[in-house]
Amino acid sequence: MKGLFNNRKFVLLWLAQAASGLGGTFSTFAVSWLVYKLTGSKVAMGSVWVAFMVPNIIIQMFAGPYLDRWERKKVMIFSEWFRASAFLIPIILYPLGHLETWHLYLVSLAAGIAQPLFAPSSMAYVADILPKDKLMKGNSILEGTGQIMMLLGPTLGGLLITAFGVELVLLFLVVSLGLSGLLLMLNPSSKNKTIVKRESWFFQFKEGLQFYRVYPVLFWVGIMMMFINTSSGAAQPMFLPYILDDLGGTAFQYGLFTSAFSFGMLAGSLLTGIREQPKNRKRVMLGSLFINGSLFLGLAWTPFYWVALVLSFGQGLFAIIFNINNTTLYQQRVPDHLRGRVFSVRILLAQAGIPIGAGLGSIIAETYSISSLFLALGILICLTTFICFLNPIFNSLNDNNVATWDVSEAENSL
Questions:
Q1: Domain residue extents for the chain
Q2: Architecture of domain 9-413
Q3: So which domain of life are we looking at (predicted)?
Q4: Which helix (H) or strand (E) holds 339?
Q5: Of 325, 371, 373, 386, which is least surrounded by CB within 10 A?
């Protein structure tokens, strides 16, 4: 890993993503806290996530094909500064006592517009600045650092809210996102200069989809993640009321619970970074998701806060093992000139289930209980991964032979 930190471009990206990760964690924490404080409603908690995810998905669909034409560095800077600007709304209105729930929906909407531009651009930029044999370790460092920020963010956010109020959390997140944009300005432009034609949105989006004809297993991984993230979308808004109401916790304990998940992701990143690429990627990826679903069942049944902390750690550990292997799989197979649009299609497929989960999950939790919701989610994840494990197409996850991208071949397969 020493060689990676001698790479100035990687170091600047690493620092920028660290600042972005802290700001993003603070934003999730602050919005969740403010919505629940203003409304006390589980449905409101779920609907604010819908307000974030719906524009997120729409932007993924329509902006994705153009990300290979736009300068990736500038796209990331815009994303960071646009989000920072949106959070000036609660910073100004909350101390004056004029903040209302619809303001937070507006902030979530703005974040949903900007954030999906950052992730695929960043993934593609990493592949621009690192050789293929360094991608696994580079992704591990970036993912691990992001999880350190997510580890510190909720705990620090809980302490800041308890001691000083939510205003300081809002201020920190704006500064973090602004700093991330400044660091990215110091980085050189990406090397991708291959897109020179001005094709239509439909043509570019179709070309991104055509890649999945060459590697159909990647398409089915995306479909699988749609079901998995339906569960994630349902669970994420409910963690705050789960800790406060079901387990009788505090804001600080909610922060620790969220940090436990991030600590598990950090441990998984370190574990993945020091190991070679798995020989049986199918077993590692699908097995990690199955265990993650089993841990949801534990959250449904435990009445003890400390057990929930351990289960949250385990979920983070196995989630990041899957994520790193999945991202590396894409980076090793997607040609440079298609990365932006292919990553966008990937994220679009994976995130399509999140708003559905957030909407349905909040209704189930309000009508029945959060424990009933977690039980249903655990069953859904375990059943989905078990079916995928039996599907022969997922055997291709173990194929290390990278085929050459042939546009004519992809077009003929449509």
A1: 9-413
A2: Up-down Bundle (1.20)
A3: Bacteria
A4: helix 339-351
A5: 386
